[in-house]
Specification:
The strands form 8 sheets. A 6-stranded mixed sheet has the order 12-17-16-15-13-14, with helices on both faces. It has about 750 residues and is α/β, with parallel strands linked by helices. It is globular. The protein contains 23 helices and 28 strands. Helix 15 links the parallel strand 13 and strand 14. Bound molecules: 2-acetamido-2-deoxy-beta-D-glucopyranose (NAG) (9 copies). One 2-acetamido-2-deoxy-beta-D-glucopyranose (NAG) binds next to strand 20 and strand 23. Keywords: Glycosidase, Hydrolase, Signal. Belongs to the glycosyl hydrolase 3 family. It comes from Rotaria sordida. GO terms for molecular function: alpha-L-arabinofuranosidase activity; xylan 1,4-beta-xylosidase activity.
Amino acid sequence: MHLFFILFLTRIVWINGQSGNFPDCKSGPLSSFPICNQSLPSRQRALDLISRMTLVEKISHMITTSDAISRLGLPKYEWWSEALHGLAYSPGVFFGGDLPAATSFPMPINLGATFNMRLVHHIASIISTEARAFNNEDQAGLTFFTPNINIFRDPRWGRGQETPGEDPFLTSQYVYAFIQGLQRGDDERYLKIAGNCKHFDAYDLENWNGTSRHYFNAKVTDQDLVETYLPSFKTCIQDAQVASIMCSYNSINGIPACAHQFLLETIARESFHLNGFVVGDCGAIANILYTHHYRLTVEDTVAVALHAGTDLDCGIFYLLHLHDALNSKKIVETDIDQALMRTFDILIRLGWFDPPEQQIYRHLNKNNVNTLEARQLSLISAQESIVLLKNMNNALPLHIDQLMNKKIALIGPTADATVTMQGIYHGRAPFLIDPITGFKNLTTGKLINIEYARGCGISSYDEKDFAAAIELARSSDIVFFFGGIDHTIEDEGVDRKSITLPDIQLTLIQQLEKVTRSPLHIVIMSGSGIDLSYIRDSIQCSSLTWIGYPGQSGGLALATVIFGQYNPAGRLPITFYPASYVNEVSMFDMQMRPSPVNPGRTYKFYTGKAIYEFGYGLSYTTFNYTWNNNTIFSFYSIQSLIKNNSKTNRTLISLIRINVTNTGNMAGDDVVLAYVTPPNIIDGEIVPFKQLFGFERIHLAINETKEVFFPFTIEAALTIARDASKWLHPGLYHITIGQQRMFSIELEGQSTQWA
Ligand SMILES: *[C@@H]1O[C@H](CO)[C@@H](O)[C@H](O)[C@H]1NC(C)=O
Ligand SMILES: *[C@@H]1O[C@H](CO)[C@@H](O)[C@H](O)[C@H]1NC(C)=O
Ligand SMILES: *[C@@H]1O[C@H](CO)[C@@H](O)[C@H](O)[C@H]1NC(C)=O
Ligand SMILES: *[C@@H]1O[C@H](CO)[C@@H](O)[C@H](O)[C@H]1NC(C)=O
Ligand SMILES: *[C@@H]1O[C@H](CO)[C@@H](O)[C@H](O)[C@H]1NC(C)=O
Ligand SMILES: *[C@@H]1O[C@H](CO)[C@@H](O)[C@H](O)[C@H]1NC(C)=O
Ligand SMILES: *[C@@H]1O[C@H](CO)[C@@H](O)[C@H](O)[C@H]1NC(C)=O
Ligand SMILES: *[C@@H]1O[C@H](CO)[C@@H](O)[C@H](O)[C@H]1NC(C)=O
Ligand SMILES: *[C@@H]1O[C@H](CO)[C@@H](O)[C@H](O)[C@H]1NC(C)=O
C-alpha cells in the first residue's frame, strides 16, 4: 500500500511538468544553482547555467535542434516552431494524440485586408494559447519563427501572402498587434510565447530567372532602407519588444544578412535595442561561405556570423565548425557564451525553468484548443478580409428568399478548395469548409439547387472538363466562377513570372459568358495581385470578389458575403498591377521610387495606372465623410513644433477628425484610411503620391454616424532624404481620407532635420 502510494505520487510528479520537456528545477542537478532561482535577473541565471556547461555542451546548444544535457537535467529543445496564422507544420510542432489540429486563421495578406488590428491582436493571443497547450503536451516549442514582416515589394514574390501587404505603416501596426498577442498574456512575469520577426532584411525574392534567395544581393539605398525596409522591424524590436529576429538568406549591398554587423549590431541591437537573440534563417550561415562566398573558410565564416551577432544557427554549421573557429583563434569562448546568454535568457523569460504550479500558461491544455471562440474568430477574420472589387448594378448580395427553385452553378478550380484556403506555412486544421459546402450550408432547406463542375485546373492547359461546366452553366439561373492561383504558382521558393490569371481560366470564363442567362459572378483566391482587368471591364461579369487564402472557414465566410449576411469591408493591402508591370521593372530592382527602368513600386510611388489600387474595396452600403470646416486649412510653425517637442516630447501636429455616416440601407463596416501627401521639395526629390498615416475600421448601423480620429504627427509629416536623413519641410500637406482629399495643413518656417 505504502509502496504503491509512493509510486503513484512519483508518477503524478512526472506527469505534472517534469515530463521530459522541461528542466527539473525541483530536484534535478540544477535545482540548487542560480539558474533555478527566480529572484535573480534572467541574464544572471543564464550566465550561471552557461558557466556550468562544457565546451562541447555549449556548442550543442548553438543550433536550433539542441541536445539534452542529462548531466545537468537539461532536456533537449527544438527552437524551430512555426505559427504564421495558426500552429504550423515545422520541426517543433506535432499534430496528433489529444491535439490532432489547431485553429487555422486566414493568411496574413487577408489580415492586412481587414485593417483591423484589434482582430490581429486577438488572433495572435489565440495562437499563443494554443501554442502553450501544445507545448505542455510536448507537441510544440515555445519559440516561434513568426511573423514575416518583409514589405511586399513586387507582385511576383511567392511569399508576399505571408505578409500584411506593401505598406510600411500597415505592416508596423500589424506587427505590433501580432507580437503583443503572441508574447504578452495575463501573466506579466512571463513571455507567453516568443515571436520572431523575419527576415532581416530586404528579403522578398525566392527564385527568379535563375537567381535564388541564397545568392541574391539586394542593392538597397539608404533612403529605401530607412523609409521602407526598416520601419516594420523597428516597431517589432523597439516597440513590441520581440524576443528574436531572423537574419535572411540574401545579401544586402554585398554583405550576407547573417554577417551584417551594421544591421544586426548597430541597427537592431544598438539603435532599436533588441532584447533577445538573432537566429540565422535555415542554412543561411552556411550560405555565407557556400553561396555568397563572402568568406573563404569555415572558421572565418563562423567568426563573421558570430561577431555580427548571429546567435543561433538553424542548421548544423555552428555545430560542425565552432570548434575549428576556436582552435584557429578566430573566435573566443566568450563569443559563444554571449550567444547562449541571449538564447537561454528567452527560455528563462518563458518560465521554462520555473515551477509549473504558479504559471497559468503551464495549465493550458486540449480544452483551450479549437474552442468555440477560436472557431468564431477564424470565421470573422475571413469575413472581415474579403474584398468586393466589382458589383455592377448591385448584383450582390443574392437574396436567398428570391432564389426558391433556382439553380446556382459553382464552377472552377477553387470552388472545392480546402487546404488551398490555408495558404502556406499552415498546420492541420480541425475542419476546412470549402466554398461549395459554405454555399450549401446557407441555403439548406431553401429549395435552392447548388451544383458544381470543376471546369478546369488552376493552370495546366486541359479543356476536357469544359463541356460539363458549360452545360451546367447553360442550365443554371446563376453562375459563379471560382478561380485564382495556389501554391503551385506562388510559394516559398516559387516566384511568379506572370501576374495574369492563368490562360485556361480566362478561356473558360469567356466561354461561360456566352451561355449564362445573367452575368457571371467571379471569385478569386490568391495571396498576391493578379491583373483582373478582363473581369473588371467585361459587362458579362457582374461581380468580382477577392478572398485571399481565407483559412478553415473561408468557404462559409464567402457564402455569408454572397448571400448578404455579412457586408464586405476588406480593402486591398496591395496594389493590383497590370500584367505589363513585370516587363517594366526587374524583379531584382529594390528601388521604390520610379526611375527610367522602374515605374515605381506600391501605391506610394507607382506612376502607372493600377488595375485595383491599394485600399480599394466596395461595400453593400454607402458612407459619407464629413468634417468640421474650421479645420479645412491650418498653419503651424515648424520652429514651435520642434520647440514643443524638445520640451514635452509632444509630436502631435493636428488631430484629424472625421464623421462617417452610413448613408445606405445596410449595416456594415467601413475602413477609413488617412493619407498625407507631402509638399514637393525643390531639389528634385521624388515624394510619395501619398502615404498612409492612420486607419480605423468601424461598424455603422443604417443612418449611424461615428467620429474617427487620426493623429497627424511630426513622424507622419517627415520626408526621408536621399541620404536617409529625416526632414520636416515647410509647405502644404494634403490630407486624403479614403479617396477624398479633405484638408491641407501648412507648415511654415525653415526645413529642419529630425533626429
Ligand atoms: C536567490 O537569489 C536571491 C537574490 O540574490 C537570494 O537572496 C536568495 O538567497 C537566493 N535563493 C537561493 C535558494 O539561493
Ligand atoms: C533572365 O536570364 C537570362 C540569362 O541570364 C537573361 O538573358 C535574361 O535577360 C534574363 N531576363 C530577365 C527578365 O531578367
Ligand atoms: C453550417 O455551418 C455551421 C458552422 O460550421 C454549422 O454549425 C451548421 O451546423 C451548418 N449547417 C448546416 C445546415 O450545414
Ligand atoms: C454627405 O453629408 C453632407 C452633410 O450632411 C451632405 O451635404 C452631402 O450631400 C452628403 N453626401 C452624400 C454623398 O451623401
Ligand atoms: C461629428 O458630429 C457630431 C454630432 O453631430 C458633432 O458634434 C461633431 O462636431 C462632428 N465632428 C466633425 C469632425 O464634424
Ligand atoms: C464645408 O466645406 C465643404 C467643402 O469645401 C463645402 O462644400 C461646404 O459648403 C462647407 N460647409 C460649411 C457649413 O461651411
Ligand atoms: C505647443 O504645445 C502647446 C501646449 O501643449 C499647444 O497649445 C500648442 O498648440 C503647441 N504648438 C504647436 C505648434 O503644436
Ligand atoms: C522625452 O523622451 C525621452 C526619451 O523617451 C525621455 O528620456 C525624456 O525624459 C522625455 N522628456 C520629457 C520632457 O518628457
Ligand atoms: C434613415 O434616415 C432616413 C432619412 O432621414 C429615414 O427615412 C430612414 O427611415 C432611416 N432609416 C433607419 C433604418 O433609421
